[in-house]
Amino acid sequence: LVNFKDGQWVNPRIVPYGPIELMPGAICLHYGQTIFEGAKAFMHDDGELYAFRIDKNAERMNVSADLICMEQIPVELQVEGIMRLLDVDRKWCPTMPESSMYIRPFMFATEDALGVRPSSEYIYCCILSPSGPYYAGGFNHGVRLLITDKYHRAVTGGTGASKTAGNYTASMRPGLIAKKCGASQVLYLDASNTYIEEAGAMNHFHITKDKTVVIPEFNDSILRSITSVSMIELLPSLGFKVRQERININDFVAQIKSGDIIEAGGFGTAAVVSPVNEYIFDDGTIIKVGDGKIGENTRKIYEAY
Q1: Strand partners, 108
Q2: At residue 87, what are phi and psi to the nearest 5 degrees?
Q3: For a surface tag, which of 14, 45, 56, 276 has the fewest beta carbons within 10 Å of its beta carbon?
Q4: Lowest mean pLDDT across 77-86, 138-147, 215-224
Q5: What SS3 class is residue 239?
Q6: In the prediction, which pLDDT does 192 show?
Q7: Percent of the chain scored above 70 by pLDDT?
Q8: Can you give the pLDDT at residue 305?
């Protein structure tokens, strides 16, 4: 825990997990000034914990803070605090294959004020949680996404590029509707219903016949995924071409039907790679990607990462 008060970050400390006291007028409770991150640490054979690119998460935390008018917190302070907490709780990190210690840093506005304005006081906090393998039964199953023009996660000029709580609140109702359609999540389009944006809480990707991995171009309504950024750096060494572009939804569907797109999925911290086997439309029409199974390219990417 660290407090921001009187223009500075003060009293960094590690304390037992428990309640955090807030005034009823705390700005976070009324106007949603809250941001968070998600990262992982892994136990290596040498008995040490390694946090995966935690500096990138700390940098993105400040991007989120800036976008919703919160105070930035030094990257060095974030990283040192997380590392010290991992050191204290290292014995709780599971050691089974593909397990990890999940890292959840977050920050919220604590000033007791009812006016609609940015807070002058904040708490930065980080909690940990042992996490088993995301694919407990093995990397064997893909998901279905709902393609709809009725719901949007974020819009241009909004907060879509920040990891703020409100963006996830906005996704809950569409997520429930997707499940009623037999889908895992929504493939979100931009506000004009023209271009692909996010796949649920992940960055979308697809793979073409010539082994090109295509990821939507980052903009102010797409969260810049640490996993996607890492994939962009990693993929050329695996023999893949990679590019980012605006992906027209009609072109995307046509290329699936023609067989030009052979695999698709999402990149994100929790699942790393989530294969998509099918897309379903509001009218119930279903299109299958490739042969409807997890492709060899997607599997190769997941295992390499």
Answers
A1: 34, 123
A2: -65, -40
A3: 45
A4: 138-147
A5: coil
A6: 95
A7: 100
A8: 94
Q: Quick one: which of 230, 241, 239 has its CA closest to 207? A: 241
Backbone φ/ψ region at 32: left (φ over 0), alpha (ψ -120 to 50), beta: left
For the chain, what is the radius of gyration of the CA atoms? 20
Q: Which residue has the tokens 């290596």?
A: 44
Structure tokens at 205: 């990707």
Rounded to whole angstroms, how far apart are CA atoms 178 and 282?
A: 9
The per-residue pLDDT of the chain, averaged, comes to 96
At residue 219, what are phi and psi to the nearest 5 degrees? -145, -170
Strand partners, 245: 216
Percent of the chain surpassing pLDDT 90: 97
Taking only the tens place, the pLDDT of each residue in 238-296 is 999 999 999 999 999 999 999 999 999 999 999 999 999 999 999 999 999 999 999 99
Would you call 73 helix, strand, or coil by DSSP?
A: coil
Which pTM does this prediction carry?
0.95
Query: Which own/partner contact pairs does 72-79 have at CB distance under 8 Å and 24+ positions apart?
Result: 73/2, 73/4, 73/9, 73/107, 73/124, 74/9, 77/2, 77/9, 77/12, 78/54, 78/105, 78/124, 78/126, 79/54, 79/55
Question: What contacts 24+ positions apart, CB below 8 Å, involve 186-190?
Answer: 186/145, 186/146, 186/147, 186/148, 186/151, 186/153, 187/145, 187/146, 187/147, 187/279, 188/151, 188/152, 188/153, 188/154, 189/147, 189/149, 189/152, 189/249, 190/152, 190/155, 190/156, 190/221
Question: Do 287 and 253 form a contact (C-beta atoms < 8 A)?
Answer: yes
Amino acid at 222: I
Structure tokens at 3: 């407090």
How far apart CA 169 and CA 234 sit, in angstroms, is 32
